[in-house]
What does this fold into?
Amino acid sequence: MSLHDITARIAKAETNAGRLAGSTKLIAVSKVQPNERVEAVLSEGHRCFGENRVQEAAGKWPGFKEQFSGIDLHLIGPLQTNKARQAMELFNTIHSVDRPKLAKTLARLAQDIGQCPDLFIQVNTGEEKQKAGIMPADADAFIAECRELDLPIQGLMAIPPVDEEPSLHFALLAKIAERNGLQGLSMGMSSDFEQAIALGATHVRVGSAIFGERIKPAE
Ligand SMILES: *Cc1c(COP(=O)(O)O)cnc(C)c1O
It folds into this structure.
């Protein structure tokens, strides 16, 4: 696979779903990939990337930002409150807002810094104990709480359980978003992004299908 193959498959999935061409944003997930692979994708003209750890991103992206303009960086992994300020300064979008304490910290820092990245609320659609995300039953109240805090919530994000049919989880996420009037849907990875697009994904997060298998395991 390559960037070109993936963009072609996204375009086809959009057409099949009767959606506008270009209505899905491709986040190239570059976590733990060697810099040469990331640089190759940047050189092909792609500018939208995802990382799951603040520390790792802070090590690699300031350098790329000096070399390439227009980089659009997305945090897709869990965020600790003590890294929130650094994340807000580094990322254009944060996909992992998942608890009241983090929402309050982001709101306070947004006042302080004078700006806030676009935000997605992560929903634990599979209700998995080890996974981040607000439980589906608590999602409506949490979305309301974030709005009261004036946070720029663009949509919802989910990572389905590995051993379940992802479409059920994509459909659930889309339903929660719709009843809360949210447009953004961050869902779909290398193995299931076409299904996610069929169910309305606005952001797909694709790593290994673009860059190849990750050499080191990601957290
Ligand atoms: C690693 C990761 C991805 C990309 O996974 P692939 O299977 O390599 O496409 C997507 N979303 C999140 C949250 C991730 O951590």
